[in-house]
Write a sequence for this structure.
DNA sequence: GTACACCTTGACGTATACGTAAACGTTAGG
DNA sequence: CCTAACGTTTACGTATACGTCAAGGTGTAC
């Protein structure tokens, strides 16, 4: 009979292995990203267990996407993301009645980073589309060649 | 006064440094790709200098694109490309009067690989577009938030 | 309160993708 | 034929991104 793993405390926080499973990462990677300053858990338990909230998980998922799908290095990713220090400041300070000017500055900063992220991803998509075009052109030539061969083949090698 | 580099022999072949400059690679990378079986030069000089033709350069450019733009590992790239042995066979054998059945098989093989390349690149584009959507959604929320603040800010932190 | 799964912080190991230097051969102009 | 720029192979070095222990603390069910 299998032992139940001590149930994860019905909290809004997840522990590192739960986060890792949900996102398809390893705990080592998550700790490494923290080491690089890419993200820090929203909280720690009394015994200093890392505790992640929904925003952490979203951020980690984005990091994974940038790494796996977009193929960015972790250095590039850290350039692309808001630095974690700023994020912590925002998370902790924004809710307080900071003065309106500073609130605006925080949001505007996030917005400009998000716009940069969008541009960079779109640029990458454009480059990939150019590659697809090249591949499709080659495909067209090969299909023509195949048709020729089936029709009783003429022609030289390309 | 600068010495002229010994002019590259008015041949249809390029030497490794010329190829590297043209594509923005290093000679080390090119040799490394050869070591991994990703490509081999069309010819060697008497003194065993590597000599690349247009098809080699196209292939190398594609490899660079797959690495830089698509972010694939060299292992993935070698899975994606026709293996170099087959390419050499094609280059050398196709022009000869191989029998029609084999010619057809060679072209059909290339075609199916090219189709796979196209699918994989399109998949990657789709994943990137999903990321862009997520980023744009976040951008929309931030813009709304900024408008709120400018209108005299209500609301909680997201 | 004890067991067992889970966590912590080091710290060393490893695969990938090259960089870099050594020792030596090649090519082409003068 | 000599020389400067370029190439060759071999081999060791390095940055990145983790994997994998080790030694010890934590959290919850029983």
């Amino acid at each position: 009979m299998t032992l139940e793993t001590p149930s994860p405390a019905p909290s809004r926080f997840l522990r590192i292995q739960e986060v890792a499973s949900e996102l398809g990462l390893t705990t080592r990677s998550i700790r490494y990203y923290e080491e690089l300053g890419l993200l820090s858990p929203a909280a720690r338990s009394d015994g200093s267990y890392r505790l992640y909230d929904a925003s952490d998980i979203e951020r980690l998922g984005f990091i994974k996407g940038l790494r796996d799908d977009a193929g960015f290095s972790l250095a590039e990713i850290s350039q692309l993301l808001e630095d974690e220090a700023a994020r912590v400041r925002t998370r902790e300070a924004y809710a307080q009645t900071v003065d309106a000017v500073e609130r605006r500055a925080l949001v505007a900063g996030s917005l400009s980073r998000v716009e940069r992220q969008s541009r960079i991803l779109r640029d990458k998509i454009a480059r990939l589309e150019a590659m697809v075009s090249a591949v499709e052109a080659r495909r067209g030539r090969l299909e023509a060649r195949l048709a020729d061969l089936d029709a009783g083949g003429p022609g030289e090698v390309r």
The helical segments of chain B are 16-23, 27-35, 54-68, 74-80, 84-93, 100-150.
